[in-house]
Design goal:
Blueprint (H helix, E strand, L loop, with lengths): L11 E6 L4 H8 L1 H9 L9 E5 L5 E7 L14 H6 L3 E5 L6 H12 L13 E4 L3 H13 L14 E2 L9 E2 L2 H13 L4
Parallel strand pairs: 1-3, 1-4, 4-5
Antiparallel strand pairs: 2-3, 6-7
Helix pairs in contact: 1-2, 4-5
């Protein structure tokens, strides 16, 4: 199953770079990293990627070129290319994408491989995307649910990422049960 990574302080930053913000990002990443990127031929053009070295050969971060917000042929799913270009590890957007929800969805779609007949067990990068799952669900509803007089969507987060005193790691249904109780009280059976 495709999913976003849990937040971690070790997530490598991915800076989304355009011609407009490149001068400012050079100062953010530091003179040495900026000089390294330029020596490697990095240009702030859509789809270009440059890994930045850190201490003892570790990955300090990644530069990834994106289109300007006003570009006529701007690709909001451009960060999907990161899913197949980045080495294994956990990443986070260091500067928020123009369309954070579409960028996160693009990343997940970029990871997808049909594996019904042959499982793809190759290492994959992960993305820390906050509540992008909720955003993705809202985009789905906006796009595919026709206008109706009344309907409701309940986005119930029912997952324990680690064991706790009241529940083991994994799925839990407490939020759904609470929602059922609330609706049962408000709308009793006749």
């Amino acid at each position: 199953m495709l999913a976003f990574s849990s937040p971690t302080p070790d997530a490598a930053p991915v800076w989304l770079v355009s011609a407009r913000n490149w001068p400012q990002l050079k100062s953010t990443i530091g003179a040495a990293a900026a000089a390294f990127a330029e020596r490697c031929g990095f240009e702030p053009k859509a789809g270009r990627m440059q890994c930045l070295p850190g201490e003892a050969g570790a990955l300090a971060g990644v530069l990834f070129g994106v289109d300007e917000q006003t570009a006529p042929a701007r690709d909001p799913f451009g960060p999907a290319k990161l899913a197949t270009s980045l080495p294994e590890g956990v990443y986070r957007f260091a500067n928020p994408p123009e369309d954070a929800d579409l960028a996160a969805l693009g990343f997940l779609l970029g990871l997808y491989r049909y594996d019904r007949f042959r499982a793809d067990k190759s290492p994959k990068p992960g993305l820390v995307a906050g509540m992008a799952g909720s955003i993705t669900a809202a985009l789905f509803l906006r796009r595919f649910v026709e206008k109706a007089k009344s309907w409701a969507h309940f986005d119930v987060y029912a997952w324990n990422p680690k064991p706790r005193a009241h529940a083991p790691a994994g799925g839990e249904i407490q939020a759904a049960r609470g929602l059922f109780e609330l609706l049962s009280e408000r709308y009793p059976r006749r």
